[in-house]
Amino acid sequence: MDAGISPGDRGGLVGRAKAMILSPRDEWPRIEAETETAQEVFLHYAVPLAAIGPVAQLIGSQVFGYSVLGISYRPGLVASISTAIISYVLTLVGVLVLSLIADLLAPKFGGVSSRTNAMKLVAYGATASWLAGVFGLIPSLALFGLLGLYSLYLYYTGATPMMKVPLDKAPGYTAVTIVCAIVLMLIVAPISAAVTGLFGAGAIGSVASGGDTVTLPGGATIDPDAADKFGKQMENMASGKVKPIEAATLQEFLPAEVAGYRRTASETVGMGQMGSTAEATYSAGDKSFKLKVSDLSALGALAGMGAALGVEQSREDADSYEKTGTFGGQMQSEAWNKTTSTGKFGVVVANRFMVEADGQANSIDELKQAVAAIDQSDLEDLVK
Q1: Rounded to whole angstroms, how far apart are CA atoms 14 and 377?
Q2: Residue 256 pLDDT
Q3: Which of 136, 238, 314, 349 has its CA 20 to 30 A from that of 33?
Q4: How many CB atoms lie within 10 A of CB 378?
């Protein structure tokens, strides 16, 4: 009676991901019995989920930036997008190559060669590592990325039902396959790390079911609707259904004057289907800051997942503070250093646009006034 949950079935992308995390031993036999082709598994499952990590880091780098030893750094938008694209493409290439390796290795461990099942093993087995990529949304939480090591267990439990590897040889088959995966990762990681400079380490927590939500360490929960929306928007972007807003249109939102500061320069950048951005520099006396409006296109759906997770962060000392959280369903980031009179305030609008003021001002309130000068309802109307 139970036909299982597949990306194209009643459970959808979220249903399959939850089942893989919560009950992999029950789910693998269902997957083996499904008639999906390797191409369908790759397009409908690997393509959207593999984007989580690169997109999370892209948004995290632009909305929150990085902070190391008290030094804050935010890479340029073009560089961040380029890094995300490269990482994403190489990840997908890795899936294809690793599936070929898994297929070739199976007979050597008493299993059966099957290109389709090998793709299923690699794509569905990577579920945990891909979902853990969401922690890149806030750089300081990147250490939780090691939750993705749960994928090692997923590969192990899938070796026998998918590739017919005998149970006593499944550990060896898994180990050799994982070594190949590590080699591939060592090829991909330096390219991404060269730009982001991020490495994470930490403890592994548990994942549990919570009715219609997935509960993560610390009590945070993932809203399946938000996750499903992300997957659909990624598919729509790939098919060209999501149309980015032109940078010239975003530029019209930047006022000539805001909070007593006058606009002295402006710049726009268009990145095709990946989105666009418009920013302007505002000056008054010896103070100046940048006000930026960015269309994250379909990638902005991940911000909704961040809000659904309820992620938050705060840090404070005698001279400065930083805090990130979800307010009114929108992710916001705020930071201020009273010694240098520098700070930033940003908000994600409609899981699509990022509005941020960053630089020197007399107070954080002036940066908030600058962000408030961008009419959020008018931005939302652009995508209705």
Answers
A1: 30
A2: 95
A3: 238
A4: 10
